[in-house]
Fold this sequence. Notes:
This protein is about 40% helix and about 15% strand.
Amino acid sequence: MIASPKILAVNGSEREGNTTDVLRHAASVAALRGVDFEVVDLRNIRMERCGPCGDCNDRPVACAVTDDLPAVVAKMIAADGIIFAAPVHGFGTASLMQTFIERAGVGYLRFDRPLTNKVAGVISVARRYSAGETWAQLTVNALLNRMILVGSGFPATVHALHKGDAAKDEEGLRNVSRMVERMVDMIELLREHRRLTGRDDLMPFGEVNERVNLPLNEMQAQR
């Protein structure tokens, strides 16, 4: 029996508000397609900031800081698709999501890029300003991790100020719905491709790691 598609949403908001409401909407769309949809609220996990060690660009092994990040990374690796969702704070990405990008990316994901060819979606929530800039930052992070980015035509940006306002942005939620639908379509297409070709790797792999400048096989031997 084929397992249901799995989408993991990473919520970078410091509070339960409009970003949470948008992800509930996304979950309802995914449920209609039989998708297992899980949300990780970064505000509820133990996540340290980058420490003073400063050896990230030299070490061939994962981050030495002990917190809940490895468990979240494991959930990402196990998922078929990942949604990065964050509100705009101070004209940029909310600090929880920024910390997550730094810790997960530099500390865990860059060694062998385990998110390669997973389907990515991006949502930003803003009163009005910098929604596009935050959406673009999260998008570049997905591309850095060699994910397959799925859009909705217009970016999935939702305008909201006060709690509950996200539900009033019909166009924004429509773009979120379209993005989720297309993510599921892409997941199913990739599954069918793998079934027909017997290939699990859709890209050449083994090039020099772009951050540490060590061949991947040498890095993996030291892990």
